[in-house]
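cache lookup: miss for this entity combination. No prior model stored, computing from scratch. Input as submitted by user K.M.:
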Amino acid sequence: MDALQTVFLTGVVLFVCMALFSRDLLKAAISLGVASIFLALVFFHMHAVYAGVFEISVVAGLIMVLFIAAIGMTRHEAEEKEKRWPTYLLPLVLVATFVLAYIIIFASGMLGHYSGDVMDTFGKTLWLGRTFDLVGQIGAIFAGVVVVLTLFRKGREDE
Amino acid sequence: MNEVLTGDVLAAFVCAVVLFCLGVYCLLTMRNLIRLLIGVEVMTKGVTLAFIASGFAGGNIFLAQCFVITIIVVEVSVIAVALALIVNAYRHTGSLDIRELTKLKG
């Protein structure tokens, strides 16, 4: 196994753990952004250049800014204290997911069996093969913008 | 097991499963609304990694990237809407605790 890939994957898992278990929400959001950068490096390493660029610019950039803005708007003196976490739950979930993943991905032989033709460039695949995905993406962005505008307008009226 | 599975792909799949599990664990155990959203984000990271690893293994990385880009775009919309809802919920309840949202009035 490639050492560089191992370093990147370890970085992803480490920073995700920091994001989930850090007490400070701001540190958690920043750790999540760093984990996204490591994930983008994994994508680059697997020749998924466009996905890597999207991961860095949108997930590590835009979503982290959204999180930090929301944390800034909701910060107050007393942070919610999480109750004792049932630690027995994590290994249970881990084992269950590994079994499911094994059944779905490996045992059924689904890996690498995409439907549709293999095209030679990313542009052709996206614009010709997945045209309706683009329509769906535009719809999702439009719906998101409308909902956010509506929510904040109502918030101002309430004040 | 499939012969296209190299060490890199297998490691990526294991990492994807671990990420998904961490996200599920976060959703099951935490009560802070923003932290729950971070859990959703972590689960999505696991799914995108699985897509890319699968595309890399199957020799169709372009299609996998198309799916990942769609996932990322939808994820941004979901996160933006959810954060707006959280900010509004905070203005109403003064807390980020999800248990405060159990008493909804019509």
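stored under new cache key. Chain B has one domain: 7-102.
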